[in-house]
Design a protein that fits this description.
The chain is an alpha/beta fold. Helix content is about 30%, strand content about 25%. The chain has 16 helices and 21 strands. The strands form 3 sheets. It has a 17-stranded mixed beta sheet that branches. Strands 7-8 form a two-stranded antiparallel sheet. The chain is globular. The relative contact order is 0.16.
């Protein structure tokens, strides 16, 4: 990775034992509880989201500055470098920057359909050793939701050979419009089968040359502006021994109205086909005679991004760990706003969560060490598909069978104090009880997700750890605001998603209301502190999808 001399010098200096000696002597004095500092939050969010960090993209000078800042702050607090004497865990990535992108062209129908890169389609690849990608005259097949779920008796690829073909896929699950949480795919609550990451994974397993998802704002949970800003410019992919040669050549998205024109050119009605795809037993539909072509060049650069690992050793059971996680990365330079601003600063997403790691570490240092060790993990590559947390999941610095559980923090709410918090995955694990106790002390409550169809459970780093059996609590600021109620809370959330999420206007605002952030930080602190002092090992509830993994791991211990 590119590194400035100053940044590297700072990082190396912080690895010195002298840093630990600088910790305040009074930090060892145990106290009942210490409130996390909003001043620390403000300082770090303002700094991390400043233009000087250029949007904190992995493998850029913005990463160097972020790593140096976090190592400096953790070191000054007196925490220890968590990875065998280092603050960092290397995460091997490949940066892929598409250029010379041709239009995505569909030929052979009633009329040729052409989708322009950016405003009408986005395209890329997971393949990390191919400087040129070309999909030429690839037969097109509509595969509905692109799901192969044997346990549900559902296979959109049944009897189909898509090797060398281009598959058109719908986002979300077939039953996302269902009211309630019952149905073949949990009704409104998105499953992993509904996530775009799964769609591409399954298309690759089926041998598709290209996989294109139809963008539809409601089931996708965000507008085309988010797709365009997230999928253009430098992308980051996990490195692998085979260069991801088993993945589809091209993956991307297409605007729904352009997809409708494509279907019409093949004599089909998109809305009718979408309705048919929701029914069990749906059969894939070839767009007879229609072929797809697209090509692009790739600038490829292997580099090692980094997770940041800080450790507060426990007093009596230091080999048992509580994990706090947040992602430090964002999108870097992105699609410019009308005023020309092209830096996606990521102030809310996720300078707030990153700053929270430091604020919680600071509070715990002031309160004194707990019986169990506490790990503060800032991961890379979340915006590229949870890459840093996935790498930690596969290569944990602290074994998961010795890790009790933890909390994940992503995009803290600056809309003000809420009467509730929204628990993503409420009811999945026994960690809910720890949060309920902390909420009761504040006179607040935990509520279910108001928009389970958006699949937030599969969109942040806790999911990478859950897949390895580790119970992780992830909650967000509630929508029932003290000032304005649910109407104000929902309006604030909608405004953020529409105008700032994954865009250049997610910037630090000195006028933010930090009252909700402070209240939620106190919850993270209380839950983490509780986990770090108890002798219990909270688990997933009976029957949960991750319970068997955890039971097997703990039995091995």
């Amino acid at each position: 990775m590119r590194s400035s001399i100053a940044a590297i010098a700072a990082i190396l200096a912080l690895s010195s034992p002298l840093v630990a000696q600088a910790a305040p002597a009074k930090a060892a004095a145990a106290k009942k509880g210490v409130d996390p500092s909003i001043d620390t939050m403000k300082r770090l969010v303002k700094e991390l989201s400043s233009d000087a960090y250029e949007g904190r993209a992995p493998g850029t000078p913005g990463e160097d500055k972020t790593l140096a800042l976090l190592a400096a702050d953790f070191g000054k607090l007196g925490l220890k470098p968590g990875n065998k004497g280092s603050w960092f865990q290397d995460v091997p990535l490949v940066e892929i920057n598409a250029k010379n992108v041709s239009p995505l062209t569909f030929s052979g129908g009633k009329a040729a359909i052409t989708a322009a890169y950016g405003p009408e389609m986005v395209i890329g690849t997971y393949r990390t050793t191919q400087p040129h990608i070309e999909v030429k005259d690839s037969p097109v097949v509509f595969v509905g939701y692109g799901i192969n779920a044997p346990e549900k008796g559902w296979n959109d690829y049944a009897g189909l050979d898509v090797k060398g073909k281009t598959v058109i896929i719908l986002v979300n699950d077939p039953d996302y419009e269902t009211q309630g949480l019952t149905g073949p795919f949990n009704g409104r609550a998105m499953t992993y089968y509904g996530r775009w990451t799964y769609k591409y994974e399954e298309a690759a397993r089926q041998g598709a040359a290209a996989a294109i998802i139809v963008h539809d704002t409601i089931p996708a949970a965000y507008g085309w502006n988010v797709v365009q800003s997230s999928w253009t410019g430098a992308q980051h992919v996990a490195d692998s021994a085979n260069g991801n040669a088993d993945q589809s050549q091209a993956i991307g998205w297409i605007q729904k109205d352009k997809a409708a024109a494509l279907f019409a050119s093949a004599g089909l009605d998109l809305d009718q086909q979408m309705a048919a795809a929701k029914q069990k037993g749906f059969k894939a539909v070839p767009l007879t005679g229609v072929t797809a072509s697209v090509s692009f060049d790739n600038d490829l650069r292997k580099h090692s991004s980094k997770n940041v690992v800080a450790l507060l050793p426990g007093k009596t059971r230091p080999n048992e760990y509580v994990l706090y996680s947040a992602h430090w990365d964002h999108l870097g330079h992105c699609q410019a706003a009308p005023d020309g601003d092209d830096i996606c600063n990521g102030a809310v997403d996720n300078a707030t969560g990153t700053a929270a790691l430091v604020a919680l570490a600071e509070a715990n240092m002031k309160a004194g060490p707990t019986d169990r060790s506490q790990v503060f993990l800032a991961v890379t590559g979340e915006e590229s598909g949870l890459l840093g947390s996935a790498y930690y999941g596969a290569h944990p610095v602290f074994p998961f069978r010795q890790t009790v559980g933890g909390v994940n923090m992503d995009a803290l709410s600056v809309a003000g104090l809420a009467k509730n918090v929204v628990v993503i995955g409420k009811g999945k694990s026994q960690l809910d009880a720890y949060l309920d106790r902390a909420l009761a002390a504040q006179g607040r409550v935990a509520t279910l997700e108001p928009t389970p169809e958006k699949g937030f459970y599969y969109r942040s780093d806790h999911f990478s750890f859950a897949k390895h059996g580790l119970p992780m609590l992830y909650f967000e600021g509630g929508e029932d605001l003290v000032k304005g109620g649910t109407a104000a809370g929902m309006a604030a959330a909608e405004d953020y998603t529409k105008n700032r999420y994954h865009g250049p206007k997610d910037e630090y605002d000195p006028n933010w209301d930090w009252s909700g952030v402070l209240a939620d930080l106190k919850l993270y602190y209380a839950v983490g502190r509780d986990l770090a002092t108890t002798k219990d090992w909270p688990n997933w509830v009976a029957g949960d999808e991750f319970r068997a993994i955890r039971d097997k791991d703990r039995a091995a211990k």
